[in-house]
Amino acid sequence: MKTTSKLPEKSEVLFSAKEIDLLVSKLAGEIGASLKGSERESIFICVLKGAWVFMADLVRKIPAPVEVDFLRASSYGQGTQSSGLVKVEIPHSLSVEGKDVYLLDEIVDTGRTLLELRGAFLAKGAASVKLVTLLDKKSRREVEIEPDFVGVEIPDVFVVGYGLDWSERYRDLPDIHSIITE
Ligand code: 5GP
Ligand code: MG
Predict the structure, then answer these.
(1) Which of 46, 47, 121, 173 has its CB 3.0 to 4.6 Å from that of 55, i.e. a possible disulfide?
(2) What would the pLDDT profile of 42-96 be if each residue is shown by its tens digit?
(3) How far apart are CA 91 and CA 72, in angstroms?
(4) Considering only 5-9, 33-37, 109-113, 130-134, which range has the smallest mean pLDDT?
(5) Does residue 9 or residue 107 have the better pLDDT?
(6) DSSP state for residue 151 in the 8-state scheme
(7) Which atom of ligand 1 is least distant from the CA of 137?
(8) Predicted pLDDT of residue 97
(9) Which residues form the pocket of ligand 1, taking CB atoms under 6 Å from any ligand atom?
(10) Nearest CA to ligand 1 atom 16
(11) Has residue 3 got a pLDDT over 80?
(12) DSSP letter string over 1-57?
């Protein structure tokens, strides 16, 4: 049993592991249907580090063989507010030409990360880029971007667990917790 005792006092479980599992299953079903409708090759790209757990769970539920790859992006640094500056590293070896890209992030906040990455993949010749997220903090959006597949919309709270960190901690927690930081 995982211990959560190191979490700050002002936190609560927003989604339990069981609830997350249901959300991921729902997304896998929707994406499976979308894959059936395309003749092209597809590739699932995970935005590290936050989306690693989500990616692993999602691709194992998708009822079709899928190719996976990974890249890094960061905008939060050490704090709980987005810095507004997105740093992305797209490896040269990552080939998306002519493919349907499914870009996976665990949470969409300002929308800058996915906007930046979608542009970069279209410029690299992707046939399409579909945006997949487990959590959508829609009220925080600063740029025009609408994910194609959303697990669930959440209010403007800072969340950790299930891959999400606070200064590199709590990524290993099975539940998603909301934290009150002030
Ligand atoms: P965006 O570019 O949409 O502002 O930021 C997206 C990234 O910021 C997410 O992929 C995630 O890594 C980080 N992020 C956004 N909201 C939260 C949050 O509530 N908790 C944590 N731990 N990271 C977040
Ligand atoms: Mg992320």
Answers:
(1) 46
(2) 999 999 999 999 999 999 999 999 999 999 987 655 566 666 677 777 888 899 9
(3) 9
(4) 5-9
(5) 107
(6) E
(7) 16
(8) 96
(9) 47, 50, 75-76, 82, 86, 105-113, 158-160, 164-166
(10) 109
(11) no
(12) ----TTS-SSEEEEE-HHHHHHHHHHHHHHHHHHHHT--S-EEEEEEETTTHHHHHH
Mean pLDDT of the chain: 91
Find where tokens 């989500």 sit. Answer: 54
* Residue whose token pair is 């692993």: 56
**Atom of ligand 1 at shortest distance to CA of 74?**
12
d(CA 117, CA 132): 12
**Bridge partners, residue 102, by sequence:** 44, 130
Q: State the sign of the Cα–Cα–Cα–Cα dihedral 11, 48, 143, 102.
A: negative
Average pLDDT on 12-19 reads: 97
Lookup result for tokens 């709980």: 80
Catalytic residues: 109
Residue 66 belongs to what H/E stretch? none
